[in-house]
Amino acid sequence: MNATVRPVEAVNPVVHRALPAWVYNHPEMTRLEYQRLIKPNWQIVCHVSQLSAAGDFVTLDLGADSVIAVRTSQGEIRTFHNVCRHRGARLLEGSGHCAGAITCPYHGWSYRLSGELLGIAARETFPALERATLGLKPVRSQVLFGFVFVTLGATPRPLEEIWAPFAAEFAPHRFEDMQLLSSYVEHWDCDWKVAMDNYLESYHVPIGHPGLYRMFTPDYDDQRTAPDIARGCSWLREQPSSRWSERFYQKLVVDLAPKDLPEAHRRRWSFYSMLPNLGIDVFPEQMDFFQVLPRGPGKCTIRGANFGLPDERREMRVLRYLSARINRQVQREDTFLCNRVQRGLASDSYEPGPLSRLEHCMVEFHELLRARIPEARLPEPPARFA
Ligand code: FES
Ligand SMILES: [Fe+2]
Questions:
Q1: How many whole angstroms from 59 Cα to the centroid of ligand 1?
Q2: Counting ligands in written order, which one lies closest to the CA of residue 90?
Q3: How far is Cα 36 from Cα 373, in angstroms, rounded to an integer?
Q4: Are strands 110-112 and 101-103 parallel, antiparallel or unpaired?
């Protein structure tokens, strides 16, 4: 070996390694993750533009729980557990509109949009019923940047405190004035942590996302982190891409981005991650969020949507089409890569390898997981997890 080249482990005394394979595919882990990480933290239900009229609703399923966000007749946004107070039937699915009241599909109990119990079929058959105690159970929520967040935990840190270091970067994009452009739900054959590991590092970009790399610098060259948040910026390359759609995007974007957007924001794609499971991507012409939700051990659901300021210009539609096309390709590449990791983890031969400094956000995610679920430190699942 060349005497001047020392192995990384000699230079860097702390060698981080990924979590042991069993952690990425175990039913007890999934249960604990929902309980200790997903539910106690802030989760996006939807954007305020999806609740524009009284009665508009969106639901979010979190493991066995489900939450409704609804616009009331008074114009407020309220959030409730999606559980009927009679015998527990799930009240609403997906998103839509309830005219005037939320009505249970089982025996027809109905609730005001503000949650109070309104009507009971065969009321006289419930002699001692106290209507006032049987409203929908509220869920703690907060609207920030135009997004309705909920938490099923007691006291997560306030959202504005978590996002404070980056609020000024978001401001010129005016997320709160945006409209929904499209939404999606995808099911991946990998554990949610494999997907998050992937979103939290860009070490894979030059190899895994050749199109993105042709257009932009990798975001690990321009990173900023704060507690629970990581942000990376990818800057538009001067060199035009060899592919027409990418080249066309590069050409259009700087001129078409909203005029009040600062120059720097017109030339970059910024990727924000909030631990444990939220991503927000900001582009000059639109933004998106995605949430990675456990769907049983070794499986996950990616729930996302993108939003833009109202803009009917034909060129803007073309620009957003190109951006969506590029991002769909990136997403396909990530799905392919994450599913391959999950398959590799299933091999008895796998042992967690050393991690690069470029994977430090992933290490922070693992630290959070180990802090909340100490068993994740063990090389094998403990006997009580059987
Ligand atoms: S469970 Fe909802 S009315 Fe009976
Ligand atoms: Fe990726």
A1: 18
A2: 1
A3: 8
A4: antiparallel
Written as six digits, the tokens of 237 are 């390359």
- Six-digit token pair at 75? 């114009």
- pLDDT tens for each residue of the chain, 386 residues long: 334 444 444 555 578 999 999 999 999 999 999 999 999 999 999 999 999 999 999 999 999 999 999 999 999 999 999 999 999 999 999 999 999 999 999 999 999 999 999 999 999 999 889 999 999 999 999 999 999 999 998 888 999 999 999 999 999 999 999 999 999 999 999 999 999 999 999 999 999 999 999 999 988 889 899 999 999 999 999 888 888 888 999 999 988 988 889 999 999 999 999 999 999 999 999 999 999 999 999 999 999 999 999 999 999 999 999 999 999 999 999 999 999 999 999 999 999 999 999 999 999 999 999 999 999 999 999 999 98
Nearest to 211 by CA among 305, 325, 289, 336: 325
At residue 324, φ and ψ (nearest 5 deg) are -65, -40
Calpha distance 336→188 (Å, rounded): 9
Query: What is the best residue among 86, 125, 126 to mutate for testing ligand 1's pocket, by most ligand atoms within 8 Å of CB?
Result: 86
Structure tokens at 213: 């790399």
Query: What is the identity of the amino acid at 157?
Result: R
From 66, 106, 118, 126, give the residue whose CB has the most ligand 1 atoms within 8 Å, as the site to mutate. Answer: 106
Q: Token pair for residue 53?
A: 């009229």
pTM, two decimal places: 0.93
Cα 381 from Cα 383, distance rounded (Å): 6
Helix 244-256 to helix 314-345 angle (10° resolution) is: 130
Closest CA to 201 of 265, 273, 267, 295: 273
Ligand 1, pocket-test mutation among 91, 92, 104, most atoms within 8 A of CB: 104
Closest protein CA for atom 1 of ligand 1: 87
| Neighbour-count burial of 31, counting CB atoms closer than 10 A to its CB (0-12 exposed, 13-18 middle, 19+ buried) | middle
Strands 43-47 and 147-151: antiparallel
Instruction: Determine if ligand 1 sits within 6 Å of the CB of residue 106.
Output: yes
Asked if 371 and 36 count as a contact pair (C-beta separation under 8 A), the reply is no
